[in-house]
Design goal:
This protein is α+β, with helices and mostly antiparallel strands and about 350 residues long. The protein is built from 11 helices and 14 strands. A hairpin with a 5-residue loop joins β1 and β2. The protein is elongated, with a radius of gyration of 27 Å. The structure holds zinc ion (ZN). Zinc ion binds next to β3.
Length: about 350
């Protein structure tokens, strides 16, 4: 759109300069037609060559003499990612194809387009931070498909099978999110950030320093708007018997004393800035909320504990580690009309959205 407006503004200036005399008007008209054809012809050829997504490209990045034949090396389609599969095989994929597979695996395709776009940019940013860098776990690949190391991954065939009769719609929807954000990443002081994300927050995201101990300026805690109406299983419960609790907890913390009544095992939790459990004393031992989360497979570290003779019950809110972008929060913001850049800037403090270095 921006390019068309630019052309019109130029024409206007030229028309103004050549208004003296009728013959000059004719000359000007001829010049104008010539000029228009010069500008518009390559534009038309270019617009006709691609998909419906070029309109979403940021203006200024597409020169008018862009040729259809050679792929743009700065575009996702012109970059190659080496992806190590579960069986160790390394696939070389164009970045846009790889991102499609990540987004299809990481976020429900039913989400709003702007949320899918935010997720795509987060995934591209993660990938950018790994490309051209030696990763210890997979020295021959930029990324892998193990979610404990890199990002989730699903093939188009597997995704289509999961989506059933929505397959065609969702396939196109994710492709559109990738195309609409082509080569854009999240930058802090000019470098791609650690674009961490999680499923849903309990009102606020958690400052990185509170979860991982290292202060990351752009991973500060912020409000997150999703609630029980937006998120399936927003509130969840886990109950374990006293015997189960004892054996699991004592295996991890053998120094703990769980000899008294279960009501006496738990101290008053220290809460983090998001209202989650930073730490709690259990059987005389200080335990992080995130450690209890792992030990008893809680959906998040935002929980309360009820202890009694019938067992230990954790009542949990939200899902995930709580740092960075909340996916359901992103979807709620998108429903409120926010674009992907606004969503990303909401969750990652002080960042810019810009071309991949
Ligand atoms: Zn990996």
């Amino acid at each position: 759109m921006g390019e068309k407006q630019k052309v019109k503004r130029n024409d206007w200036k030229i028309a103004e300069k050549t208004t003296s005399g009728t013959s000059m008007k004719q000359v000007a008209a001829t010049a104008l037609i010539l000029l228009l054809s010069l500008f518009l012809l390559p534009l038309l050829i270019f617009r006709g060559s691609g998909g419906p997504d070029e309109a979403a490209q940021p203006t200024g990045t597409l020169p008018l003499d862009h040729t259809v034949v050679s792929p743009d090396p700065t575009a996702d389609s012109g970059r190659t990612v080496r992806v190590q599969m579960g069986d160790g095989e390394v696939l070389s994929l164009p970045l846009d194809k790889y991102l499609w597979r990540v987004v299809a695996a990481e976020m429900p395709a039913s989400f709003e387009p702007a949320a899918l776009e935010a997720q795509t940019v987060a995934a591209r940013t993660y990938t950018a931070s790994k490309m051209g860098r030696t990763v210890e776990n997979h020295p021959d690949a930029d990324v892998c498909t193990d979610i404990n190391c890199c990002q989730a991954y699903i093939t188009p065939e597997e995704a289509a099978a999961n989506w059933g009769d929505k397959a065609e719609e969702y396939t196109a929807k994710i492709a559109a999110a990738v195309a609409a954000t082509d080569h854009m990443v999240i930058l802090y002081q000019g470098e791609p950030i650690q674009a961490v994300f999680f499923s849903s927050a309990a009102g606020r995201t958690v400052d990185a320093v509170e979860v991982w101990g290292n202060d990351v300026p752009y991973l500060a805690g912020v409000d997150s708007p999703e609630g029980e109406d937006d998120v399936p299983n927003y509130h969840s419960q886990v109950t374990v018997s006293l015997e189960e609790f004892k054996s699991a907890f004592l295996a991890a913390y053998p120094q703990a004393d769980l000899s008294g009544a279960p009501e006496s095992w738990f101290g008053v939790p220290e809460t983090n800035s998001a209202g989650g459990v930073a730490s709690v004393i259990v059987g005389g031992v200080v335990v992080k909320g995130s450690e209890l989360r792992t030990l008893f497979s809680l959906r998040s570290a935002n929980f309360t504990v009820a202890a009694g003779s019938e067992g230990i019950t954790f009542s949990v809110t939200g899902y995930g580690h709580g740092v960075g972008m909340s996916q359901y929060g992103a979807n709620t913001l998108a429903k409120e009309g926010k674009g992907y850049q606004e969503i990303l800037k909401w969750y990652y403090t002080g960042v810019e959205i810009g071309p991949m270095p």
